[in-house]
Amino acid sequence: MAEIEGQVDDGFGAVADAFRANFDERDELGAAFALYVDGDKKVDLWGGTANAQTGTPWTEDTLQLVFSTTKGIAATAIAMLVQSGTLRYDDPVSKHWPEFAAAGKDDITVEQVMSHQAGLIAVDAPIDFDQIMAVTPVIESLQEQAPMWEPGTAHGYHAITYGWLAGEIVARVDGRRIGQFVQDEIAGPLGIDLWIGLPESEEERVSRLETTPLPTDDPALLEHLGKLYARGANGYRALALDGRLSTAKGNHFNTRAVHATEMPGANGITTARSLAKFYAATAGTVDGVRLLDTDTMNAARTQRVSGDDLTLLTASRFGAGFWLHNEGAPMIQDGSYGHPGAGGSLGFANPELGIGYGYVMNRMGNNLTADPRCLALNDAVQASL
């Protein structure tokens, strides 16, 4: 039986029960969960195994790569630049990044990039893994290539490229790379463990990701995944960069190279405690820090697109970089904004409920969103509130 440690305030016992049940009933390996309510930490739990190969236990300080949950951090960096007045969502990207105007992209706006409407879901140039890790070849390819569809007419999840596009906008507007911006403007002021580009000094704290075999008793899921990851399909192109990034055996996301690079759409490394505090500070004041004022927060969570997603082959709903509450990615109720990550991680805020929520794990589920472990935690949080 997994050992569970941490803090649970009175009234939130149902959350601790759900967290425990994830280990007992839902094949959890190692995980952590945290919840802030009205600026105060109410739940901070961790448990299980950080490395199944060595048996290393998950501790209070274990770090986790959270895949697309990183996108909410990138969205907040962009929102902070909007708040400062140095950027507008309706700016053409080429206003700040002139080279981006090539191949008919001169009118693509920051809003369209942040809401997955730009038609740049993959990297067309034949660059290899090492070049992807170097980032600059990716940026050069994205600024040179043409969109896959007319920007603004449809949306398709930019699973990995979203982060590089947002990151380059941050760099062009602010002068700092997004990893440094996050340290200076978000992680540092909040005193949290959060990196896009992990220092080598922190590497030994990172939990090892484990994949889960595909379920043979769920034909609908198998059919959907088959279509999604078919070679040449938008999902394969976007989620795996045409096979150049993999979460299968030999998982690239367990490597030092991926941890060290800046991949702001997919390689954020953090803790549940830090993720929950971060989201709480986008919607309110935590320990004297507030990242987004009310107007900026509301602009960032305003729906920009919804409905059929050309990449995911299901419905999705986005604000300015944030995934919004919907059936595919439940975040308790409308008004919530945040982002799920591949395998199950989730971070979000709901200002009306006053919550900042963070869940991280190392056993990757096969569902794209709506992980059963998160659903159980969501229900417990709602019942406790």
UniProtKB/TrEMBL annotation:
<dbReference type="InterPro" id="IPR012338">
    <property type="entry name" value="Beta-lactam/transpept-like"/>
</dbReference>
<feature type="domain" description="Beta-lactamase-related">
    <location>
        <begin position="19"/>
        <end position="368"/>
    </location>
</feature>
<protein>
    <submittedName>
        <fullName>CubicO group peptidase (Beta-lactamase class C family)</fullName>
    </submittedName>
</protein>
<dbReference type="Pfam" id="PF00144">
    <property type="entry name" value="Beta-lactamase"/>
</dbReference>
<dbReference type="InterPro" id="IPR001466">
    <property type="entry name" value="Beta-lactam-related"/>
</dbReference>
<dbReference type="InterPro" id="IPR052907">
    <property type="entry name" value="Beta-lactamase/esterase"/>
</dbReference>
